[in-house]
Amino acid sequence: MNVQEEILTAIKEYQTIIIHRHQRPDPDALGSQVGLAEILRASFPEKAIYQVGGPVEGLDYLAEMQEISDEVYKNALVIVTDTANSPRVSDQRYANGAKLIKIDHHPNDEPYGDLVWVDTTASSCSEMITAFWKMFAEELTMSQEAARLLYAGIVGDTGRFLYPATTSATLRYAADLLDYGFDAPKINREIDQVSRAVARLSGYVFENLEVDSLGAGKVILTNEIQQRFGVVDSETSAIVSLPGKIEDVLAWAIFVEQPEGYYRVRMRSKGPVINEIAKRHHGGGHPLASGANAADLEEVAAIYQEIQTAVSAFREQA
């Protein structure tokens, strides 16, 4: 029995199923979490299926969370999607269920849970959930709402099919989901559109991006800058990909100061591997898309220097 069969067996076994995802969710976190919840509701209407976690931070057009009591976790199956490390799970009650399943597409640096299904070749966790449905299509029911959510997750994590993780399988799964008749252009617009404040901040990023001669870039968004443009940290995720639009930028980091004084670090790359850098600075992620934390400007400088070293080594190997 493979792990997917074990997961389906567990789903059938439990009457109550609670699904979590990571803090500060992106479309893939919500798409995989609530997309799976909607598949299970359509497939097993007699079961109690819950989606839980903190604020969805501007993604309420995708889904909203449910409030449940601690008592619901008793004898429940808990599934966590799109979350590599247990401290990042959206609600720490995830550990209070009778059985725990991890479904994720990030490197499996922390294999928590009783059952672990990790596929780092998948473009997104939403792609994995779609593959799960296809694998057991005779027993699982796809709904229009589930298809909408999973499509949004795939679109979000592939950058609308721009990133290297997009495969022919990714496109086939997206096509399968489109057959369910939701408004795909609307989803694409909702994911892509930004507020006026973020649009103005985008101009600041382009104007103030520091790029060395090899293509390593950085920009620092202090608390003062965020206040000047009227944005909060969660909104800055919309500008992370912008430096990559510049042809001579190869890898870059956006350093976002937090109210507590430390910096949240969002890193992206067109080739050099950056997740090992992230791991050295209280983070992790994919080889070309990672996140980390810097205690102060000294650590900010150290991270940027490591990105420069990675870019230099990549150039030498090319």
Automatic annotation (TrEMBL):
Residue ranges constituting the DHHA1 domain according to the UniProt record: 229-312
Leading EC class: hydrolase
Q: Does the keyword DNA repair apply?
A: no
Q: Which GO terms describe its molecular function?
A: 3'(2'),5'-bisphosphate nucleotidase activity; nucleic acid binding
Q: Specify whether Hydrolase is a keyword of the entry.
A: yes
Q: Write down the SUPFAM superfamilies for this protein, in alphabetical order.
A: DHH phosphoesterases (SSF64182)
Which Enzyme Commission number(s) are listed?
A: 3.1.3.7, 3.1.-.-
Please spell out the taxonomic lineage of the organism that makes this protein: Bacteria, Bacillati, Bacillota, Bacilli, Lactobacillales
Instruction: Please list which residues make up the signal peptide.
Output: none
Q: Which PANTHER family does UniProt cross-reference here?
A: BIFUNCTIONAL OLIGORIBONUCLEASE AND PAP PHOSPHATASE NRNA
Keywords (alphabetical) are: Hydrolase
Under InterPro entries, the record lists:
DDH_dom, DHH_sf, DHHA1_dom, Oligoribo/pAp-PDE_c-di-AMP_PDE
- Domain named DDH: residues: 17-154
Whose protein is this, by species?
Enterococcus gallinarum
Q: Which domain of life is it from?
A: Bacteria
The name on file for this protein is Bifunctional oligoribonuclease/PAP phosphatase NrnA
